[in-house]
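step 3/5: co-fold with FE2/S2 (inorganic) cluster
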Amino acid sequence: GKYQEEALILANEGVADTTWRLVLECPRIAAEARPGQFVMLQIREGTDPLLRRPFSFHRIHPERAVFEILYRVVGRGTWWLSQTRQGSRVSVVGPLGNAFRPPDRPGPVAVVGGGIGVAPLYELLHQLAKPSAFFGGAVDIHFFYGTRTAAEMLPESTFSELNLPVHRSTDDGTAGFCGTVVDLFRRVLEKDRWRPAVIYACGSLPMQFAVAQWALSRGTPAQLSLESLMACGLGACLGCALPAPDPKAPNADRYVHVCKDGPIFEAGSIRW
Ligand code: FES
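step 4/5: write tokens
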């Protein structure tokens, strides 16, 4: 189902440089949300409604009727969102889009997040790390997490309860490996000589492109969340259209829309 709810804001706080976490009590949406899906949230400027914007689920707690989103303050809309106080309400529509799928085969799993792309991967990591109804069991997980600089990185304590290796990188070398998260991912896999059974990734388009190239060249399945391309989330702006091979005529192209057909795509289902 898809619901519209007036969610109660339980917390709205800065967690890293320009990065905020919003905790919402929203029973029907929290009950059905799956990792990788998103909601449309109506941001208000004072009392005036602005456009609805898409945000993925960062953490889902159905037992408490709560979910969380993680967002970057990048412009007027998200600045207003960061000013919204605990105890007020916000209109939410969801859950929308498709979800990450469990691995098709056993073996280690690589999760690769760039910048705010960590948002949907955090819930996925929880579901992979703990036996859950959705993924059905614990697997060997390696998490690769890169930001531009250390100040943008979520604190280490965010990941401690997951109890898994976190390989960190920053573009400027202020924390972890100096370079991109895809450079780090390639380096660790080549040094330790293992192949993931599946890669899950979310981040900027160039980062996802690099992950897709690596996965396709090695025949490794990869599920990419292309949510960063969504502006309206409703099929109205066409800003999220991408060329894709037509399954009925593989040499022909068709267009897919991240907001309607995604946001999760197999690496091979997009014309990169
Ligand atoms: Fe606007 Fe997909 S995000 S059409």
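step 5/5: annotate
The first strand starts at residue 3 and ends at 16.
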